[in-house]
Amino acid sequence: MKSFARSGVLGLVCAFIAAPAYAADVSTGPCGFCVLWDWIPFILNGFALNVVISILAMMLALVLGIGLGLMQISESKLASVPARFVTQLLRNAPWIVILFMIMSLIPYRIEVQGWGNFILSDWIKATFAFSLPVMANVSEILRGAVASVPKGQWESAESLAFSRGQSLRWIILPQCVKQMIPHLMNWFALLVLATPLASIIGVREAVGSAQAAMESAGSSPTLLIPFYFFLMMIFFIFIYPVAIWSRRLERNYAINS
Amino acid sequence: MDAILTLIAPFFRDLYETTGINFNVFYDPYQFKRFLIGAENSILLILAAILLSVIVGVAGAAIQQSRSTWLRWLVGGYIQLFRNTPPMVQLLFFYFGLGAYAPQVDMGGYYQPMVSAFGWAVIALGIFGGAFNVEIFRSGIEAVPKATLEAAESLGFKPWQTFVYFTLPLAFRICLPALTTNLVSLAKTTSLAYVISVPEMANMLNQVWSSTFNIPEMMAVLFCFYVGVVWLLAAFLHWLERRLRLRGYSK
Amino acid sequence: MQSIPDNSAVSLAASPSMVTVSIRDLHLSYGKLEVIKGVSLDIRRGEVVCIIGPSGSGKSTLIRCINGLTPFQSGSITVGDQQVGDAKLDKIRLRRKVGIVFQQYNLFPHKTALQNVMMAPLKVLKEPRAEVERRARELLAKVRLAGKEDSFPGELSGGQQQRVAIARSLAMRPEIMLFDEVTAALDPETVQEVLLTIRELAEDGMTCVLVTHEMAFAREVADHVYFTDGGKIVEHGPPEEIFGSPQDERTQRFLSRLL
């Protein structure tokens, strides 16, 4: 684990050295890193939206995904077949395609009778769009985890007069949680890494903010490397600990089982 | 291709005229051309990015077997950097950031970048996917039983022969399920090439719906196209897995 | 083999040219753990030598040294005209002369039984395919596996896999065969079929070195038995002596526990 962490840090250092060296040999245009310095608070402000979108989308994906997963393992074909279909469909579709579909198919304003009008701004639609592929994968993770519990567990629960629902609730699912957590964390990381897509539809998250900042700073080509590199770094700093942590959990689980 | 269009056009034209559902890419020759360009570029991009990512993966895994700590750290850093940053930002970094410094080619009067948007997409996505492949191949190589390799050694195989005849084929079989997952995911990620204006399916259909405003229909086409292509790729890789499965070892 | 004049066996037994493996004062340790502490022994052509002794006494390590799989620190091993400890040792030539069969068979799982046998003659010796295939089929028939040519290792029983492994080694036409506890991982039913194959090899005049726990078998086929304990040879001699009237107290204790 130590060498894993060390190698990552070393790679970062190398990249940091390489990037300014590139920027330095452009003589035309302002110093990219100096301009970047002024815009850092603005970009970080945008990044806060990436974090908010990720967390909301993850919570939504967990709730919907667990529901969909339970439907997948249901004994009723009426529930399991559609759930399986939705799961596979959304797992196979690229994020950007799902985002486009949600953007174009969900209206800007929704009227709920007795509740009034709701304005769905772009970032809320994006959040919903991002939660869909994660939901499908949560559903699949749940199905896989339940399938991995030895058959004997079901049989002994049944022999103790547990119903199917009770077996699932008290015997099977508790055994699944531990192995699901690293996978869920991994999907959270993938979700965070997908949120810059929201900038395509005009959401001012980190990437959108950085692009706006470059534009107002004169769109000089010297800005491109520093700004995009800085964007990569903030995501890295946020995601890398999650990656290490989930790996550690996964390894612990593998050792204990 | 024209034959296909003449075959399907009447149905979709009829569908439009009776219901208003406008799949013009399937009856209007001009829009059909756009669809074909998008399909061709998307599929080529997927294949090229997969090929590059596998090459990068094998090379990286080979370097990680080397004795040089320095090289191993460099590869380790590359893996962590590209796995833990957004692929879309990587793509922008390569295309806009590095692209601004790439040499230009004189095309008789005007200059054109040596590497096209498509080229940058292949490079960026290949390097992104390669970061995952390195770890997949490395764990495959490490999972080959040492005793099997020792048996090869005891029969007089030279180290390179042992690597080519035994380590590689066995490692490939061991890591194929993980490789399948990653390549399928990479195929989906290639759709990001939209953001640097590669004329792939999303961009071409965007041109269509911008002119004829049949957004829901084109969304359906886009969705089905990617789901279909990804499904085909996954089916091929699973077929390969079954074909290469070591006989007699269950699962 | 053909060059040896066919005079009286007695005079040949004394001649050093009959000695094909000669080990002198061999020492080997892993870090601080000393595994072999000064072993010397001679193996003559056509002889069947069994090495017995408690687990961890360095028996397996000893025979792995003979074909250069495990490096040793001091002493010498001579196989024919080759010095195994030599830095410039031609390992390919050594391994053509010395075949080894492992406890865990270690077949190549992605190749059929026939391909397993053919691989090394084809790729290492670069012999013509037709000739290699003919010989490989003969060898598989010899180990009673005719009809299993196209089976993959995973589809064969342990005993069958082990016989493929023996055929695979024989395909290199070795002068000496090393057997490293080849029946230890097998089901009791399949042990006999492997022992039968080894017995036939011994009867054909192959020089065999066996590390084994099959005492009855050792007693029956061996020309010479070495008893090792704690990295040393405690006692050696013809099987009647070692099994019939062991001199050393450690040998007696070991054998009494087994018999």
Automatic annotation (TrEMBL), chain A:
<comment type="similarity">
    <text>Belongs to the binding-protein-dependent transport system permease family. HisMQ subfamily.</text>
</comment>
<dbReference type="InterPro" id="IPR000515">
    <property type="entry name" value="MetI-like"/>
</dbReference>
<dbReference type="InterPro" id="IPR035906">
    <property type="entry name" value="MetI-like_sf"/>
</dbReference>
<keyword id="KW-1003">Cell membrane</keyword>
<dbReference type="InterPro" id="IPR010065">
    <property type="entry name" value="AA_ABC_transptr_permease_3TM"/>
</dbReference>
<feature type="transmembrane region" description="Helical">
    <location>
        <begin position="184"/>
        <end position="203"/>
    </location>
</feature>
<dbReference type="GO" id="GO:0022857">
    <property type="term" value="F:transmembrane transporter activity"/>
</dbReference>
<dbReference type="GO" id="GO:0006865">
    <property type="term" value="P:amino acid transport"/>
</dbReference>
<keyword id="KW-0732">Signal</keyword>
<feature type="signal peptide">
    <location>
        <begin position="1"/>
        <end position="23"/>
    </location>
</feature>
<keyword id="KW-0813">Transport</keyword>
<feature type="transmembrane region" description="Helical">
    <location>
        <begin position="223"/>
        <end position="243"/>
    </location>
</feature>
<keyword id="KW-0029">Amino-acid transport</keyword>
<keyword id="KW-0812">Transmembrane</keyword>
<feature type="transmembrane region" description="Helical">
    <location>
        <begin position="47"/>
        <end position="71"/>
    </location>
</feature>
Automatic annotation (TrEMBL), chain B:
<dbReference type="InterPro" id="IPR010065">
    <property type="entry name" value="AA_ABC_transptr_permease_3TM"/>
</dbReference>
<dbReference type="GO" id="GO:0006865">
    <property type="term" value="P:amino acid transport"/>
</dbReference>
<keyword id="KW-0813">Transport</keyword>
<keyword id="KW-1133">Transmembrane helix</keyword>
<feature type="domain" description="ABC transmembrane type-1">
    <location>
        <begin position="39"/>
        <end position="234"/>
    </location>
</feature>
<keyword id="KW-0029">Amino-acid transport</keyword>
<feature type="transmembrane region" description="Helical">
    <location>
        <begin position="43"/>
        <end position="63"/>
    </location>
</feature>
<keyword id="KW-1003">Cell membrane</keyword>
<keyword id="KW-0812">Transmembrane</keyword>
<comment type="similarity">
    <text>Belongs to the binding-protein-dependent transport system permease family. HisMQ subfamily.</text>
</comment>
<feature type="transmembrane region" description="Helical">
    <location>
        <begin position="218"/>
        <end position="240"/>
    </location>
</feature>
<dbReference type="InterPro" id="IPR043429">
    <property type="entry name" value="ArtM/GltK/GlnP/TcyL/YhdX-like"/>
</dbReference>
<dbReference type="InterPro" id="IPR000515">
    <property type="entry name" value="MetI-like"/>
</dbReference>
<dbReference type="InterPro" id="IPR035906">
    <property type="entry name" value="MetI-like_sf"/>
</dbReference>
<feature type="transmembrane region" description="Helical">
    <location>
        <begin position="84"/>
        <end position="102"/>
    </location>
</feature>
Automatic annotation (TrEMBL), chain C:
<dbReference type="InterPro" id="IPR027417">
    <property type="entry name" value="P-loop_NTPase"/>
</dbReference>
<keyword id="KW-0472">Membrane</keyword>
<dbReference type="InterPro" id="IPR050086">
    <property type="entry name" value="MetN_ABC_transporter-like"/>
</dbReference>
<protein>
    <submittedName>
        <fullName>Amino acid ABC transporter ATP-binding protein, PAAT family</fullName>
    </submittedName>
</protein>
<dbReference type="GO" id="GO:0016887">
    <property type="term" value="F:ATP hydrolysis activity"/>
</dbReference>
<keyword id="KW-0547">Nucleotide-binding</keyword>
<dbReference type="Pfam" id="PF00005">
    <property type="entry name" value="ABC_tran"/>
</dbReference>
<keyword id="KW-0067">ATP-binding</keyword>
<dbReference type="InterPro" id="IPR030679">
    <property type="entry name" value="ABC_ATPase_HisP-typ"/>
</dbReference>
<dbReference type="GO" id="GO:0005524">
    <property type="term" value="F:ATP binding"/>
</dbReference>
<feature type="domain" description="ABC transporter">
    <location>
        <begin position="21"/>
        <end position="255"/>
    </location>
</feature>
<dbReference type="InterPro" id="IPR003593">
    <property type="entry name" value="AAA+_ATPase"/>
</dbReference>
<dbReference type="InterPro" id="IPR003439">
    <property type="entry name" value="ABC_transporter-like_ATP-bd"/>
</dbReference>
<dbReference type="GO" id="GO:0015424">
    <property type="term" value="F:ABC-type amino acid transporter activity"/>
</dbReference>
<dbReference type="InterPro" id="IPR017871">
    <property type="entry name" value="ABC_transporter-like_CS"/>
</dbReference>
